Amino acid sequence: MPNFYQYLDHALVVTDDRMDERAFAFGDGFFSTIGVHQGEILFAELHRDRITHGLSIFKLNLETDEMMTALSQLADHMTEGMIKIIITRPKQSVRGYGFLAAQPAQVFIKVMPSAIYQGVSFVKGIPIQPTMARQMVCLTHKLSHRPPHLVGMKLIGSIEQVFGHAELLHRQRADDSILDGLVANVHGEWICATMGNVFYRLGQDWYTPLVDKSGVLGVMRRAVIQSGLLGDVKERVLTDADLDLIDGLITTNAVRGMTAMSMLNGRKLAHTFG
Q1: How many C-alpha atoms does 177 have within 13 Å on its Cβ side?
Q2: What percent of the chain is predicted at pLDDT more than 90?
Q3: Per-residue pLDDT tens over the stretch 110-149
Q4: Domain 126-268 bears CATH identifier 3.30.70.260
């Protein structure tokens, strides 16, 4: 039998077998973060679709409808706040990275009651954060080009987001007007914010970057496109040449909803939404 230790405060401490959890060892899984308002899951069907897709890609088995019912019960009990769900492969006898067959999914759930929607308006079920001064800046950290079957997935192995958000925190220490950062991929295409997807306005039209190589296909991104709140949104590559032409910029997040930026890289944006 193996023994497990943690090196903590200059000493070896006996610990549990969490090292054998595939989520811990390999980042083998995906997650979703869910907003709850008035006891209801925001866009439950879109979260269900995301989870069903993830299960298919990871070859995991789960009674999704039963689990969504359980999540709805948690939402009803908490009234307002957020739920985080991590779905991963259970421990197995096979050594190393691989797996031999589809297995029952292992599901971890964290419930965080909080009055997160105080002062937030809702339009077509979408949370709209109040208008205020918020700046977005372009970050230097780059997202990788993912293999096709993993494009758009919200993976628990999120090291790209870890370093991107660390850069944002460093920038925020020097300038507290910065709310979020715009992140490009290794091809120089601007993809998303550190905490969600983005929509940008050129002329009279709204666009959102393609998520065909990098980034996450967010639940709120899909909800905003379906809602028609920004008109007929088109997917389009966002390049360096567009940055000085953008006159409106919005981030979307499954919990926070829509958040309009007032500045991009120190330049005031003419159009705000909120």
Answers
A1: 14
A2: 93
A3: 999 999 999 999 999 999 999 999 999 999 999 999 999 9
A4: no
HSE-up (13 A, CA, CB side) for residue 7: 1
- Asked if residues 53 and 47 have their Cβ atoms less than 8 Å apart, the reply is no
Evaluate whether 5-115 and 126-268 have a shared fold: no
Beta bridge partners of residue 250, listed in sequence order? 199, 260
Q: Which two tokens stand for residue 221?
A: 């991104």
Domain boundaries along the sequence of the chain: 5-115, 126-268
Taking residues 254-272, report their average pLDDT: 94
Beta carbons within 10 angstroms of residue 182's beta carbon: 26
Q: Which H or E run includes 105?
A: none
pTM above 0.85, yes or no: yes
Count of other CB atoms within 10 angstroms of residue 79: 13
Mean pLDDT of the chain: 95
Protein fold of 5-115? D-amino Acid Aminotransferase; Chain A, domain 1 (3.30.470)
- 95: helix, coil or strand? coil
Give the burial class of 5: count Cβ atoms within 10 A of its Cβ; 0-12 exposed, 13-18 middle, 19 or more buried. exposed
Closest CA to 127 of 246, 229, 270, 262: 229
Instruction: Give dist(CA 112, CA 78) in Å, integer.
Output: 8
